[in-house]
Design a protein that fits this description.
By secondary structure, the chain is α/β, with parallel strands linked by helices. It folds into two domains: about 170 residues, Glycogen Phosphorylase B (Rossmann fold, 3-Layer(aba) Sandwich); about 170 residues, 3-Layer(aba) Sandwich (Rossmann fold), CATH 3.40.50.2000. It has 13 helices and 13 strands. The strands form two sheets. It has a seven-stranded parallel sheet, sandwiched between helices. Strands 10-9-8-11-12-13 form a six-stranded parallel sheet, with helices on both faces. β8, α7 and β9 form a beta-alpha-beta unit. α1 crosses α13, α7 packs across α11 and α9 crosses α12. The radius of gyration is 20 Å and the shape is globular.
């Protein structure tokens, strides 16, 4: 009889970021795989969000929350099967586990995190590298993780992100009125307001634009428990929109002159794909992960070069580029949650034979 396959549902108690988006969409994709309901069980802490799955069984496992739940209650509940951990961590004593580690940020940029958080996750990453099979979200992250964890890149499987979750979303245009963007040109920056997002360069670029009607809409939360607060300069043309629903994000991307993605470090970067899917031009920092994801579909600038960024913004306020838009749609089509779920399913079921 085949071993049962368990999914670590701790991510359903965490605020939404790219990691939690990945985990949610992979589980939803597994939920639609034929026969998955006979093989998988999603194990969650008490109080976890309801993913409203259609076939996969969900089992609540009491025993606290956070890392303590993961290292104790989850480890015990999954002890007789294989475990898929999608959020970068898992129980170190579980012997048959696939862990998706999304990037090497705690190694490469520890200054972006609270000191204790970065130290803990560096230690956990090293333990996972010795105890589990690792997967990640891009070729760039595979190289980075192999370097910092002293692994061969061939030891790490790539199962990328996607933007499929916005395919069937009906945009909610009410958000345009609520943010006073009707008949105003605007750009969006999408993602939690954390130091690696490098929003200061976007704000400096905005200051270079003379048009008083232009707005920069910052969509996302500020997870201060993990990251140090970034210094946000005050500008009356800035709009802090906070967290928004997928329907609101879709509407904002539909109407934007461009998405600004100024990160100094990313393992992948979902927002450019989301923008491409909605025909929204992308201006991205010229770093390895964005080059891998966007290729020739984006306009690029050096991460601290606000002058070049402002030049790209000015260009997008007055010009359209159908060829670049089509290139963006082709980039988005390369990535699929269902294909990534199949990669992880194959890794989990083929390992330890």
């Amino acid at each position: 009889m085949a071993e049962p396959l368990f999914i670590n549902g701790r991510f359903l108690t965490q605020p939404m970021s790219g990691v939690q988006r990945y985990a949610r969409e992979i589980v939803r994709a597994l939920d639609h795989q034929p026969g998955a309901s006979d093989r998988y069980v999603l194990l969650t802490p008490v109080g976890a969000d309801d993913l409203q799955l259609t076939t996969l069984p969900v089992q609540t496992v009491p025993g606290g929350g956070g890392h303590l739940w993961e290292q104790t209650a989850l480890a015990w509940a999954a002890r007789h099967g294989r475990l898929l951990s999608l959020g970068g961590s898992g129980p170190v004593l579980h012997p048959r586990q696939v862990v998706v580690v999304h990037d090497a940020a705690v190694f490469r940029h520890p200054e972006h995190f609270r000191r204790g958080y970065a130290a803990f996750h560096r230690t956990l990453g090293r333990l996972m590298a010795r105890r589990a099979r690792l997967a990640t979200v891009s070729e760039f992250s595979r190289r980075e993780l192999a370097a910092v964890l002293n692994l061969s890149p061939s030891d790490i499987t790539v199962a990328p992100n996607s933007a499929d979750h916005l395919h069937d979303v009906t945009p909610d245009p009410a958000v345009i009125d609520s943010l006073d963007l009707t008949d105003r040109p605007y750009f969006v920056a999408l993602g939690n307001l954390t130091p690696n997002k490098n929003l200061a360069v976007a704000i400096r670029a905005l200051a270079r634009l003379s048009d008083p009607t232009v707005r920069l809409v910052l969509i996302g939360a500020r997870p201060s428990a993990i990251f140090d607060q970034p210094a946000i300069q005050t500008d009356q043309r800035l709009i802090f929109a906070g967290r928004r629903t997928d329907a609101e994000v879709a509407a904002l991307l539909d109407g934007a002159h461009g998405l600004i993605f100024p990160s100094v470090y990313e393992g992948f970067g979902i927002p450019p794909l989301e923008a491409f899917l909605h025909g929204c031009p992308v201006i991205a920092s010229d770093i390895a992960a964005t080059r891998e994801v966007c290729a020739d579909a984006a306009l690029y600038f050096a991460p601290q070069d606000d002058a070049t960024l402002a030049g790209h913004m000015t260009r997008l306020l007055t010009e359209t580029d159908p060829a670049r838009r089509d290139a963006g749609l082709r980039r988005a089509a390369l990535y699929s949650w269902s294909r990534s779920a199949e990669i992880l399913d194959d890794l989990l079921t083929s390992t330890w034979r």
